[in-house]
Specification:
The complex is a heterodimer of chains A (111) and B (112). Chain A is mainly beta and 111 residues long. Chain A is 0% helix and 51% strand. In chain A, strands 2, 4, 5, 6, 9, 10 and 11 form a seven-stranded mixed sheet that branches. Chain B has strands at 4-6, 11-14, 19-25, 32-38, 45-51, 54-58, 61-66, 71-76, 85-92, 101-102, 106-111. Helix content of chain B is 0%, strand content 54%. Chain B contains no helices and eleven strands. Classes of the chains: A mainly beta (111), B mainly beta (112). The A-B interface holds A 4, 31, 40-43, 45, 48, 50, 58, 90, 94, 96-97, 99-105 and B 8, 34, 36, 41-46, 49, 88, 90, 94, 98-100, 102-105.
């Protein structure tokens, strides 16, 4: 089954404790991205990657890092999480000419 | 002016009603237009995908694009309680810029 998977689905952590949210897709898509979704603000792109070792900032990259060492994986790293990063996070992937598929989401709470 | 404007609702309709959801945009370079449906606690899923102006129909759903007015619509006929969700419009210019720009979403409730 074609899908984008994310782990963990739910995470509660404390300020400053580094965390990684994993994302994997099995569709051989070149393009992957991370979004955060907040009430009243909609979906905002954090980072995207057009292929292995090619990443770039989206609209709200501050406080986040990503890496793309393999085509299928695109982890999101929060080196020192803060409460304003409490949000619902979505990973997504697509081919360069096709539609975008979203993962199930990771609900992150930073205390 | 925001690139994409979408009325957040909420919109509440009785079962069987025709629903009209809309977005306006300011970037004339947008050529590809999408509607996503997002159920509570789920990721967005693609509902409709259209290129340039015109209509596209898929079952009870019709997507309309009017590039001259920079206005897109999604119509849902014979709405069902299972259509209750948040609907997000999205668009991109394509080409070398693959970034999708999303509206903030409209929350729809269809009452039985």
């Amino acid at each position: 089954e074609a899908q984008v998977t994310q782990n963990p689905r739910y995470l509660i952590t404390v300020t400053g404790k580094k965390l990684t949210v994993t994302c994997s897709q099995n569709m051989n898509h070149e393009y992957m991205s991370w979004y955060r979704q907040d009430p009243g603000l909609g979906l905002r792109q954090i980072y995207y990657s057009m292929n292995v070792e090619v990443t770039d900032k989206g609209d709200v990259p501050e406080g986040y890092k990503v890496s793309r060492k393999e085509k299928r994986n695109f982890p999101l790293i929060l080196e020192s999480p803060s409460p304003n990063q409490t949000s619902l996070y979505f990973c997504a992937s697509r081919t360069l000419t096709d539609t975008q598929y979203f993962g199930p989401g990771t609900r992150l709470t930073v205390l | 002016q925001k690139e994409v404007e979408q009325d957040p609702g909420p919109l509440s309709v009785p079962e069987g009603a025709i629903v009209s959801l809309n977005c306006t945009y300011s970037n004339s370079a947008f050529q590809y237009f999408m509607w996503y449906r997002q159920y509570s606690r789920k990721g967005p899923e693609l509902l409709m995908y259209t290129y340039s102006s015109g209509n596209k129909e898929d079952g009870r759903f019709t997507a309309q694009v009017d590039k001259s007015s920079k206005y897109i619509s999604l119509f849902i006929r014979d709405s069902q309680p299972s259509d209750s969700a948040t609907y997000l419009c999205a668009m991109t210019s394509g080409g070398s810029n693959y970034k999708l720009t999303f509206g903030k979403g409209t929350l729809l409730t269809v009452n039985p």
